[in-house]
Amino acid sequence: MHRTTLIFVVLFIFISLTTFAQMTKEEYNSKKESLTLQKKELKRAIETAKTEIKIFQNRIPELEQEIITAFRELYVLKYGEEIGRRVAYKQIWNGMTDEMVRDGWGDPDRIDRNVEKWGVFEQWNYGNITFFFRDGKLTDWEEQSQQNK
């Protein structure tokens, strides 16, 4: 008997809550209008964001060129006109310093270092290109073909 009473109480509470939770037609229409306005505002915001993204995407080539120019100017100040331009354009040559390579090419993917009595030997790996240094000076480089990888 106690169990049956509990079931009826739970059903009564459930039915009462669902009855009170129902909206009037005016409340429904008001909420619908509010949500419709929010949807229109969100659509406008999305379109504005898409327009801004296109503007920024169109500026990417211009900004990349500005970065290249700024780095070239920096390296010209640091190394002089000829060497600075070569570093900025990622040119490589025997005898350039490890700092020049890092400036032009960025940080390597991996560095292998051996210290011997006759010098410090390093191999800097950039993808499939390896630079060989002895005592901080570039001595050689090689590009590994895709077949050897």
The arrangement of helices and strands along the chain is HHHHEEEE
Strands of the biggest beta sheet: in what spatial order?
Answer: 1-2-3-4
Question: Which structural class should the secondary elements be placed in?
Answer: alpha+beta
Domains, number:
2
Unreliable runs: none
Taking the sheet with the most strands, its summary is: 4 strands, antiparallel
Q: Helix share of residues?
A: 55-70%
Proportion of residues in extended strands: 15-25%
- Mean pLDDT score: 88
Shape: elongated
Q: How many DSSP E strands?
A: 4
The CA-CA distance between the termini, in Å, is 80 Å
Radius of gyration over all CA atoms, rounded: 34 Å
Number of helices: 4
Which features characterize this protein?
149 residues; four-stranded antiparallel sheet; alpha+beta; 2 domains; Beta-lactamase Inhibitory Protein, Chain:B, domain 1
Summarize the structure.
The chain has 149 residues and is an alpha+beta fold. The protein contains four helices and four strands, in the order ααααββββ.
Task: Describe the protein's architecture and organization.
With 149 residues, the protein is α+β, with helices and mostly antiparallel strands. The protein has two domains: 29-89, no CATH class; 93-148, 2-Layer Sandwich (Beta-lactamase Inhibitory Protein, Chain:B, domain 1). 61% of the residues lie in helices and 19% in strands. It contains four helices and four strands. It has helices at residues 2-21, 25-79, 81-88, 98-105, and strands at residues 110-116, 119-126, 129-134, 137-143. Strands 1-2-3-4 form a four-stranded antiparallel beta sheet, covered by helices on one side. Strand 3 (129-134) and strand 4 form a beta hairpin. The longest helix is centred in the middle third of the chain and has 55 residues, at 25-79. The radius of gyration is 34 Å and the shape is elongated. The N and C termini lie far apart (80 Å). The model has no long low-confidence stretch (mean pLDDT 88).
